Amino acid sequence: MKGKKVILRDEIRESDDKDLFRWLNMEEWNYYDEPDRPFTGITPEQFQVLLEKRQEYLKKASNTSHRWQVDTTEGRHIGWVNYYQLDKKRKFVFVGICLPEEDVWGKGYGTEAVSLLVDHLFQETEMAEVRVSTWTGNRRMMRCAEKCGFKESERMPHRKEYSVRGEPLERIVYSMSRVSWAARRGKDE
Fold first, then answer.
1. Which residues, in sequence order, are CB contacts of 133 under 8 Å at separation 6+?
2. Handedness of CA 140, 155, 96, 47 (dihedral sign)
3. Residue scoring higher pLDDT (151 or 58)
4. What are the DSSP calls for the chain, one per residue?
5. How distant is the alpha carbon of residue 128 from its chain centre?
6. Average pLDDT, the chain
7. How many domains does the chain have?
8. Does residue 169 lie within any of the structural domains?
9. Treating both helix axes as pointing N-terminal to C-terminal, what angle do 139-148 and 109-124 enclose, rounded to 10 degrees?
């Protein structure tokens, strides 16, 4: 899938593993991904186990989740976008994105990558709704969802007794219906 700023690619390149190892040892983005877990980084040995688990997972060919790598149109690998918890009966799915390096934040890459994925899901599946789930502390993801046209549909108290960096967090779910997406796409063109 190709946009003006990013390309979503399905294949995994050998260099992606080097990027992932580096990203898993970067503290800042990990606070947004897993706010309840103190940052510890990952050793080469732990990373090897993680890669082996990923291979096992890919062999099972899950039909409830999928990940694409995100590259800039210039070819720089900057992260990934995915769908998960695909529910065919209730016709909804969650999407997420991770762009770990701060120098690509706030430049529209995430918004375009999420938009490409949402467009793909509505064109290629029978999903009636796409959702985004995040924490109130992840303002970049909140902004990305809102820029893509998602609307807040649910807010839940944080499940842990402690906060991250002194900030109490709430879980937020955003949603976008097929009808809303189609109307929005009509305006964008």
1. 94, 96, 171, 172, 173, 174
2. positive
3. 151
4. -B-SSEEEE-SPPHHHHHHHHHHHT-HHHHHHH-TTSPP----HHHHHHHHHHHHHHHHHT-SS-EEEEEEETTS-EEEEEEEEEEETTTTEEEEEEE---GGGTTSSHHHHHHHHHHHHHHHHS--SEEEEEEETT-HHHHHHHHHHT-EEEEEEE-SSSS-BTTB--EEEEEEEEHHHHHHHHHHH-
5. 19
6. 89
7. 1
8. yes
9. 50
**Is 134 among the domain residues?**
yes
Q: Which one-letter amino acid corresponds to residue 47?
A: F
Q: Give domain status of residue 16, yes or no.
A: yes
For helices 178-188 and 109-124, what crossing angle results, to 10°? 120
Mean pLDDT of 72-76: 97
For the segment 157-175, the average pLDDT, to the nearest whole number, is 76
- Boundaries of domain holding 35: 8-188
Q: Which residues contact 45 (CB under 8 A, 6 or more apart)?
A: none
> Residue 65's domain is classified under what CATH number?
3.40.630.30
Q: Which strands make up the sheet holding 6-9, listed edge to edge?
A: 6-9, 66-72, 77-87, 92-98, 129-135, 170-177, 151-157
- Structure-block tokens of residue 168: 């109490």
Lowest-pLDDT range of 6-10, 39-43, 99-103: 39-43
Assigned domain for 1 exists: no
Give the per-residue pLDDT at 189. Answer: 45
